[in-house]
Design a protein that fits this description.
Helix content is 0%, strand content 38%. It is an all-beta fold. The two termini are 17 Å apart.
């Protein structure tokens, strides 16, 4: 899976991101960030829940990009 790592990546305000639950996930020995959530300031993400999400890997101190 490829995704933008740059922080200046444009987002699409017409896409609503809401009501997402990440539960009981484990990622081991990953080479990149464990996840990425991109939202738009004019249509912000809402109701995103991380429950029992664990990550170990090369970039473990960086965590999710939000």
């Amino acid at each position: 899976m490829l995704y933008p790592i740059l922080k200046d990546c444009e987002t699409q305000p017409l896409v609503t991101v809401s009501n997402i639950v990440l539960r009981n996930l484990t990622s081991k020995n990953g080479l990149l960030y464990p996840g990425l959530i991109r939202c738009n300031a004019s249509n912000p993400c809402t109701n995103i829940v991380f429950e029992d999400v664990q990550y170990t890997g090369l970039l473990k101190n960086l965590g999710y990009i939000c």
